[in-house]
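ok trying this again, last paste got cut off
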Amino acid sequence: MRPLLLVLPVLLGGCSNATLSDVRPGLGGDGISCWATLNFKSRPKSGDLRDVKVVFTSIVLDGEKTFGWEELTANDYQSHFEKNWLNDQQEVLTLDPSTTAESDPPVGGTMKVKLYMPSKSEVQAGGYTDVTLQVALWWAGVKQDSASRGLFLAYQKK
């Protein structure tokens, strides 16, 4: 019975149609910015393909912050390389004009989004582990993936 219990979480973990990768929060103006890569692995069996949302929760936010498909497509970046003044290759990120709210998610592809949200200037936390940003990716009405990142560099203990 024990081996079955160990294998079951591995099998269930691989069932999502989309994943989050490269989630990187930082400071952005008077709030938090967060880069996230959305990987659309396979088409969901049912539901609206454009029913995509990224949900953020944290004690540093005034409440849950949700970004829907229209906001995600408006903040999708593409990467290309250019030579800088030292003649070195440098990655440059620009808004992707081909991504629109009317288009479906790129099944088999990715989106790299940069999202901004206002945050509190001070929070009461028991420790650094309490100051985290939780991110969840939903697609076609189903939670696909989640991640948690520390914000302890942005918020210092008094």
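PB: full thing came through this time. The longest strand covers residues 18-28.
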